[in-house]
Amino acid sequence: MPHPLATPALASLSRPPVSSILELAQLDSNSFRGESHTGVRRVYGGQTLGQSLLAAGRTIEHEHHPHSLHANFVHPGRSDLPVDYHVERVRDGASFTTRHVRAVQGGRTLLLATASFQRDEEGLRHQDIEPSPVPPLPEDLPHFQDSLTISEAAEANWLPPLMAGVGIEFRFPEEYPRLACRRGENGPPRQRAWIRTLEPLGDERLIHAAGFAYCSDLFLLSATLPPHARHIDTPGLQLASMNHAVWLHAPFRSDEWHLYEQHGYWMGGGRGISTGRLFDRKGTLVASTTQEGLLRFPL
């Protein structure tokens, strides 16, 4: 049965405001500073992704919009210190604009990213993928914490730090594979969740692109683990995101519900690779992601 006390206990947590995280202070024409606004020690990877894309976009003076972000995570960051973003103006073209971003904290490079922007244009369209099976709507699903059994809630010491560290609401159409893995059960390397930012983000298109970049890191690498009945709390696991890519196919609001389907299609050599597909309520593909990460378990 669901744990009746899970919601009040977690409701008291201070959740990070994504709208504030995506407010950058401009230091000069090519440099910006971002804050964390979280109570956890380590910077959430999606924060540096979202802030990097936003910093790059703030240097563009014409109607070009983000369509891709490719990033390499170099060092972990601390949430109690600001992160500075230094933007290199690589190219300003009629159709495409390219920016290179270096995220720095205390003299250490946390992330290197390349962002590409495009002028809106018409062209041929198709998508050869759709959600399968069709999921229940997010309004018909419980908050994740309300779906836990008493025993699951008692063992979910990983959940409060997760919810305190990211300003994202999520609801699972099926059981979250992490729960089955904790029971020692394996399964296919697939998972999906309805996601959105916790609060409205206004109407600026760049903010919503950065908002999804912020959300895109959530759960993604863990999709590689169900075939092995492992989870990211497994004792001795070394876990780190290494590189991450986001493609934005159409404008959308990251503060509205979208279905994020994830597939951990390869694992080996202490690394894993997952892909993600983001669908709107009509099943239209609006964004895609890929992430490679370190998943080193003790032998």
TrEMBL record:
InterPro entries per the UniProt record, alphabetical: ACOT8-like_C, Acyl-CoA_hotdog, Acyl_CoA_thio, HotDog_dom_sf, TesB_ACOT8-like_N
Database matches in SUPFAM superfamilies: Thioesterase/thiol ester dehydrase-isomerase
Keyword Repeat among UniProt keywords: no
Location of the Acyl-CoA thioesterase-like C-terminal domain: 160-294
Keyword Metal-binding set for record: no
UniProt keywords, alphabetically: Hydrolase
Domain Acyl-CoA thioesterase-like N-terminal HotDog: 41-118
Family of the protein in this entry: Belongs to the C/M/P thioester hydrolase family.
Protein name stated in the entry: Thioesterase family protein
Organism: Rhodococcus globerulus
